[in-house]
């Protein structure tokens, strides 16, 4: 069942988190895992007509320290992404979603495999991984001659993650001992490949 759901997961964001949790117990699945798999199958059926867009209309993200995202509007036409993460749980996870031309082109939920002593650290992990995936998408756009001259916006709902990743503010100066986690993000920002922007928590698309 889990394998059969991996294909619809590519277009149904709602399946990302439950399938991730089910996969974590796949090798030594308890009896209730089968019931969980059936419920996920039912969830997929209930959402079979879901659109890949946020909603009708048009939306465009600008380059500013705060970016407005309206989940009742479609994703922007340009390539962009958002990432979010949990912290303080027994098994923290991060979620990400990248969109292009009003539709989701990749998304997922992954485990945080490093020890993080704060919420902005797990948010940083999410931002790092999304930035890497967006670089692949940028390379594809470049091959097809459609790469935007503007940096690709990455949205985060963590002000501290934004400050540290952007090398701005007191949060950055007090976090020099952990800045190595953000080196790749900073280099991509210096190269104008990406741009970090703040997104309201209630409007975070990657909060699965």
Would you mind describing this structure in some detail?
It is a single chain. 37% of the residues lie in helices and 16% in strands. The chain is built from seven helices and five strands, in the order αααβββαβαααβ. The chain has helices at 2-9, 16-24, 32-46, 119-143, 159-165, 169-173, 183-190, and strands at residues 80-85, 93-100, 103-111, 152-156, 194-198. Strands 3-2-1-4-5 form a five-stranded mixed beta sheet. A hairpin with a 2-residue loop joins β2 and β3 (103-111).
**Individual helix count:** 7
Mean pLDDT: 80
Give a short account of the largest sheet: 5 strands, mixed
| Proportion in β-strands | 15-25%
- One letter per element, helices H and strands E, the order comes to HHHEEEHEHHHE
Choose one word for the global shape.
globular
List keywords for this structure.
208 residues, single chain, 7 helices
Task: Walk me through the topology.
Blueprint: H1 2-9, H2 16-24, H3 32-46, E1 80-85, E2 93-100, E3 103-111, H4 119-143, E4 152-156, H5 159-165, H6 169-173, H7 183-190, E5 194-198
Parallel strand pairs: 1-4, 4-5
Antiparallel strand pairs: 1-2, 2-3
How would you briefly describe this protein structure?
With 208 residues, the protein is an alpha/beta fold. It contains 7 helices and 5 strands. Strand 1 and strand 2 form a beta hairpin.
């Amino acid at each position: 069942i889990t394998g059969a759901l991996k294909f619809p997961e590519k277009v149904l964001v709602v399946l990302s988190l439950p399938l991730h949790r089910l996969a974590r117990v796949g090798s030594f699945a308890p009896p209730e895992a089968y019931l969980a798999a059936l419920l996920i199958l039912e969830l997929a059926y209930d959402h079979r007509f879901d659109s890949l867009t946020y909603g009708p209309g048009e939306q465009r993200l600008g380059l500013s320290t705060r970016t407005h995202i309206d989940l009742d509007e479609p994703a922007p036409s340009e390539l962009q992404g958002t990432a979010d993460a949990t912290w303080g749980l027994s098994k923290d996870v991060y979620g990400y979603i990248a969109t292009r031309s009003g539709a989701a082109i990749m998304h997922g939920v992954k485990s945080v495999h490093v020890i993080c002593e704060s919420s902005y650290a797990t948010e940083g992990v999410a931002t790092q991984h999304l930035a890497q995936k967006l670089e692949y998408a940028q390379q594809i756009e470049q091959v097809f001659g459609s790469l935007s001259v503007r940096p690709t916006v990455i949205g985060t709902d963590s002000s501290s993650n934004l400050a540290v990743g952007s090398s701005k503010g007191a949060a950055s100066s007090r976090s020099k001992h952990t800045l190595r986690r953000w080196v790749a993000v900073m280099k991509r920002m210096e190269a104008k490949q990406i741009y970090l922007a703040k997104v309201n928590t209630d409007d975070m698309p990657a909060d699965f």
